[in-house]
From TrEMBL:
GO cellular component, one term: extracellular region
Domain of life according to the entry: Eukaryota
GO terms of molecular function: selenium binding
Pfam family, one: SelP_N
Assigned keywords, A-Z: Glycoprotein, Secreted, Selenocysteine, Signal
Name the UniProt record assigns to this protein: SEPP1 protein
Compartments it resides in: Secreted
Region Disordered, residue ranges: 141-161
Primary location recorded for the protein, binned into one broad class: secreted
InterPro entries: Selenoprotein-P_N, SeP
Location of the Selenoprotein P N-terminal domain: 5-161
Originating organism: Corythaeola cristata (Great blue turaco)
Keyword Repeat recorded: no
């Protein structure tokens, strides 16, 4: 299961990079158990060098306990190192859009003000992401069936600073 998740995470990383979201750090924390430690090499081989696979030592404090989470959670931090989202099951399933959307929001919303870690063309990249998301929403909106129907538009709100 973890190999499947790591492959999906690699796919997501490539997708986001192709959309212009660069310089994002991805880390997979391997479980402390003996079985997980034996499978570490398979996990490491299932992702590119752009995703760090961290092997916990059996004697150290469990990372997930320290972070107040569980092994299948996604913790998403902004460029300033602040926790923006902590997604647990079922929201951490990569077949849903929650992880991807959370990364995009953490990347695009500049809550910490001017920052030396901000990418030079972030406004253009994030504008394109917002435009694409709005187009996808427009495609799934229900269409009026007759002249008496009322069309309620769905809007996605993003804040650009």
């Amino acid at each position: 299961l973890l190999l499947y998740i790591s492959t999906r995470l690699e796919d997501l990383r490539v997708k986001l990079e192709n959309e212009g979201l660069v310089n994002i750090s991805y880390v997979i924390v391997n479980h402390q158990g003996t079985y997980s430690q034996r499978k570490f090499h398979l996990l490491k081989e299932s992702v590119s060098d752009y995703i760090t696979v961290y092997q916990q030592d059996e004697l150290q404090a469990d990372v997930w306990t320290t972070l107040n989470g569980n092994k299948d959670d996604f913790l998403i931090y902004d460029r300033c190192g602040r926790l923006v989202y902590h997604l647990g099951l079922p929201y951490s399933f990569l077949s849903f859009q929650y992880v991807e959307e959370s990364i995009k929001i953490a990347y695009c919303e500049n809550k910490c003000g001017n920052c030396s870690y901000t990418e030079p063309d972030i406004d253009g990249i994030c504008e394109n992401i917002t435009k694409k998301a709005d187009e996808e929403l427009a495609e799934i909106e229900p269409k009026p069936t007759d002249q008496h129907s009322h069309h309620h538009s769905l809007h996605r709100h993003r804040h650009h600073h």
